[in-house]
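Anyone able to model this chain together with zinc ion?
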Amino acid sequence: MLKSHGYAAYDKTNPLKPFNFERRDVGPGDVQIDILFCGVCHSDIHQVRDEWGGSIYPMVPGHEIVGRVAKIGSAVKKMKVGDLAGVGCMVDSCRTCAMCREGEEQYCENPGPVLTYNALDKSGAPTYGGYSNNIVCDQAFVLKVSPKLNLAAVAPLLCAGITTYSPLRHWGVGEGQRAGVVGLGGLGHMALKFARSFGAHVTQFTTSPGKEEDAKRLGAHEVVLTRDPENLKRIAGSFNFIIDTVSAPHDLNLYLNLLRTNGHMVLVGAPEKPSPVAAFPLIMKRRSLSGSAIGGIRETQEMLDYCAEKNITSDIELTPIQKIDDAYARMLRNDVKYRFVIDMASLKSS
Ligand code: NAP
Ligand code: ZN
Ligand code: ZN
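re: yes, here you go
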């Protein structure tokens, strides 16, 4: 077994603490990565605090993993020792169902993808995520990372990046369209960068007046402060597409009313409590509402390659792992600019 060291949540209320554990030895198709950076996603907080139910402790969170390949199995062709590599939200899936065969492993129907942490792998062992010094992952779920970009700022692409890239591509957001992004956090700032890069006219919706200038710098043509609902009424019926990245319950109907006829709104934010949706805003303009989960491995690689070509990364704040609870507290106050990334070099001193 491979000895690993990281930080874990031992229950849903106490701060994360150091944790020693073991991972499987590198098998023929496996890649062992020494983790250099790991992004901090709001899903980590939801799961650490058991807001979605069913959390498994001790839990090593983290699914925005980048590092260097330390060892490969005998059958590994796509990587070599010393390469940069990434692991996102999934480490396995059935690989035989219709969705897996289409490269949409995030929607695996048999019974679902094996998540990078807070899950059980096919052998029944718990999976442990990226708040740790290393990871072993099947090559099919390991992504290639370009050395052209700042590695720490690439980490958030593995979840925040693909979760926003995938629905924008799926619904063909681009030139000639008005797109809205609700919430300017980790996912929101990536949605803004991608929507702008794809050529859409982009409006950022935020509850935080202090983020207005940043939103413009990150690519917004306009910024709308949503604490005053009058600001939303003025622009009713004008958007082709809205992506909602908000992590807490909020009024979805306010945003549905902003869509034009046939307009579409996609939820990627995953609050712990449901929000009521009124029928009339949907009926009267044949608007539609959907959700979207991360993205498949093929599309994640496409997104990473797109980012390398267009020089797109996340705006990050590096944090030592010892300060992870401060990072969580700031995210819960909407004080994130715009993704915390753990510098795994700090683990050595813990
Ligand atoms: P984050 O960095 O904490 O950003 C969330 C943003 O939502 C905040 O910065 C804030 O933006 C806004 N917000 C928070 N509370 C609000 C409230 N009560 N009313 C209105 N706006 C509020 O979180 P994240 O990492 O981007 O994750 C966002 C959500 O997406 C989480 O629920 C996460 O679990 C989910 N997620 C889903 C997927 C998927 O596959 N679908 C993948 C990753 C994450 P402003 O300050 O601009 O208002
Ligand atoms: Zn995530
Ligand atoms: Zn499957």
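Residues 93-94, 97, 99-100, 108-110 surround zinc ion (ligand 3) (CB under 6 Å).
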